[in-house]
Records
---
Amino acid sequence: MLQISGLSKSFRIDGRSLPILDIPSWQVEKGEKVAITGPSGSGKSTLLHLISGIAVPDKGEIYLEGQPLHQMTESQRDRLRSRSIGYVLQDFHLIPSLTASQNIEIAMNASMPAKQRKTLISEWLERVGLPDRAKHMPSQLSRGQQQRVAIVRALVNNPPLVLADEPTGSLDWETADEISRLLLDLSSSRQQTLIVVTHDLNMAERFPKCLDIRELNRVRKHAEHPAGREGVQEVSNG
Ligand SMILES: Nc1ncnc2c1ncn2[C@@H]1O[C@H](COP(=O)(O)OP(=O)(O)OP(=O)(O)O)[C@@H](O)[C@H]1O
């Protein structure tokens, strides 16, 4: 599903290049569920940005379902992302002026007849335990309910790869646990590959594979913003 080799990414801040990622090799098989943990600033979100083609590496190769993401133009990456990736974020990113149903509908293929779209949305809302919330605005939903809507929006097109960046980061313990199970259950029932970045160890423990990013990344220490503090950056030689 995903093959990474010789991947590196730095950010240039105040005229200095700060190495963030240096990943010699990493593979994720189709259907795998992987939780990535690691300290703040260790490059976890940056890695998801590279995998999704939102950001580009300085060097290296990323193949997504056999497609060379690293060789694509921005619009090719955008197309691949909308076809193949569902993205779940910590703060849901629902559009406040749209209902739950409309927030899901905007992610759906416009060529699908409207009636079919409505039926599919109802089925999904039922599946995530929100059968009577279709017309509610995000502000009328709890944070856990908003995350459920955001998960439906990410999964409704059945993407082969689901990426989630701190999906439980702003939720209380119990709701976080429900959201963890929901993401795992939904992606398992569709044989989707799921890569989650999380500080939530309870969530990470639920995953068949849990990886500290430092196991992949040869950049051992990281600069925090404001960048450029003396002595906080170092690239290991392996
Ligand atoms: N666009 C950018 N420009 C400059 N520096 C950046 C940019 N994006 C990230 N960084 C820096 O890269 C490093 C890694 O950031 P990243 O968000 O990937 O870390 P993280 O492991 O996800 O952290 P956290 O767990 O706190 O979310 C940080 O030092 C951050 O300040």
Note: The first strand starts at residue 2 and ends at 13.
---
Amino acid sequence: MSKLKIAVQKSGRLHDDSMRILKDVGISIDNGKDQLKASAKNFPLEVFYLRNGDIPQYLKDGVVDAAIIGENVLVEKGNGISSIEKLGFSTCKVSVAIPKSKTYTSIQDLEGKRIATSYPNTVNQFLKQNKVNANLHIINGSVEIAPNIGLADAIVDIVSSGSTLFKNGLKEVDVLLKSEAVLAVSPKISSENQNILDKLQFRLKSVLRGRQSKYVLLNAPDEKLEAIINILPGMNSPTILPLAKEGWSSLHSVINKNEFWEVIDELKSNGAEGILVCPIENMVL
Ligand SMILES: Nc1ncnc2c1ncn2[C@@H]1O[C@H](COP(=O)(O)OP(=O)(O)OP(=O)(O)O)[C@@H](O)[C@H]1O
Ligand SMILES: O=P(O)(O)OC[C@H]1O[C@H](OP(=O)(O)OP(=O)(O)O)[C@H](O)[C@@H]1O
Ligand SMILES: [Mg+2]
């Protein structure tokens, strides 16, 4: 039987969350970080542990069928490779930063300037779109040091918390793109392996939906139920069960996890009691 070949980052910022999401979709992998290849025990899947930066080429060549990869790397090196699912982790931006003391009004300010970056294709495309000419210095790491050592006037690099910029006396002035980990697919995938990928993607969607949602249970007097239903955002047809206590009911529903804290006080002041909020492992639609 054919197996889907999937690349995940060998080590680095994507590795742990990539392995966790595979585990959360019920795939158990015979691991060993030192192995470069491992098989799943209960799903037709082989995992290849690779450098994030090398993965686009493996996808292009069809050496692997799919990959969990930073979207920013796909934009930089993955011409023609499609991303089929956003995975919600390793969120970051690819941004322009300059020394704190300098001023910046628009991208035009980069005309004739020296820009240090590990993302030359992304930067060149951005400059071209904006009809700006600049000189690129391509460096593979510690890009934030470049302005301090006189190598560049500006940088384009990954920004997440902003602390690396801060520590190096830089400020973010423009955002080229927003990125997160994605599931990418090789243009050379066979139809047999595409079927396996579809099954994997179906499971991923249900886990991702679950991660976005919470299961809420609460008790309330019957006369307050209508008001409570109106308060809970995005609720469609909650389950209502009578409690042993006369005139009281229990209400169950799924809500978006980001919305819950905004309405909790309102729920309480409208008579909700014993509010329980539980995580959801899977939401299969
Ligand atoms: N500070 C950060 N916060 C959030 N996500 C990040 C951050 N830095 C990088 N990422 C994301 O994680 C991906 C992997 O970053 P990491 O630094 O682990 O590897 P790398 O050095 O770019 O790649 P390689 O695996 O080729 O060595 C990046 O492409 C980006 O999508
Ligand atoms: O905004 P922040 O939260 O400070 O994150 C941004 C930093 O994180 C990444 O580096 P990383 O730590 O992955 O080191 P690397 O350059 O060795 O990959 C990126 O290249 C930035 O330097
Ligand atoms: Mg990094």
Note: Residues 213-279 form a domain with the Alpha-Beta Plaits fold (CATH 3.30.70.120).
